[in-house]
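Researcher: We're teaching a course module on how sequence relates to structure. For the next exercise, students receive a sequence and then see the predicted structure as tokens, so they can try to spot secondary structure elements on their own. Here is the exercise chain.
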Amino acid sequence: MESRIIDGEAVAAEIKNELKGEVMALKKAEKAVCLAAVQAGENPSSRVYIKNQKMTCEELGIDYMLHELSGQTTQDELIDYIEKLNNDKNVTGIILQMPLPEAINPKAVQWKIAPEKDVEGMHPANFGRLFYGQAIVSPCTAKAAVTLLKSTGVSLKGLEVVMVGHSEIVGKPVAIMLLDSLRESPTVTVCHIATKDLAFHTRRADVVIVAAGKPGLIRADMVKEGVILIDIGINRVPVLDEKGQPVLDEKGKPRKKTVGDADFDAIRPKASYITPVPGGVGPVTVAMLLKNTVEAAKASR
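Model: And here is the predicted structure for the students to work with:
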């Protein structure tokens, strides 16, 4: 079987192209479209993400504001700052950059973001709307995974879908999204760290979606012919030579590569559709953050 690679870059480009027109229409109607990013403390990996956010927002015509706070900022001070952005009519979306200083509880702060400005879809009110099929915004990575699955054009009605991972960011919302339709939904099984026999579930699945943070978790012998595999995992692992030894760079340090949670090369010959890592769910996740930003702006008064 020749599998089809689900090109996340192409899907993301299509979404962003549609958003450009929506942003233009909003601005013509004199409606604000502004994403405010809040960072407390310095983090190199967060810097890269922020740079990409800013660049993509500029590409689409979305106003972008970065609010940098000291690493000594307390939880109360950060919440006060969030409240100011909640009350700023020119700000239509708020994103809290991770990680936060150790003394701050991320959930306590995220829940203070006004639901109508919560572009990551993590506020309890937005989860409630998602549960009832009335979401304006929803968790970006989960939304990206479902979008890529639906981009195959395969009817999901009655299919067996196994979601590996049950986090609040991915696993749980993916399951809810897939069960949204009354008559066209697949049958969804959610597996997690306490699942007794993971392979029993994945071998019977028409679709496997994995977000466990464990490279090589899903092997070729754990999926059936024709499976659709959506890999959300992002892991950095050493590059090995033909003898299984780490390959060193010019500084004598082990080279690393980015892989997912599934054995892509081994599963690809069996899969009907499969996402690569990188280049699969990642680009669409960024596009979904911007889509949520636009949807929040459209819903604002």
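Model: If you want an answer key for the exercise: Residues 140-282 form a domain with the Rossmann fold fold (CATH 3.40.50.720). The two ends are 52 Å apart (CA to CA).
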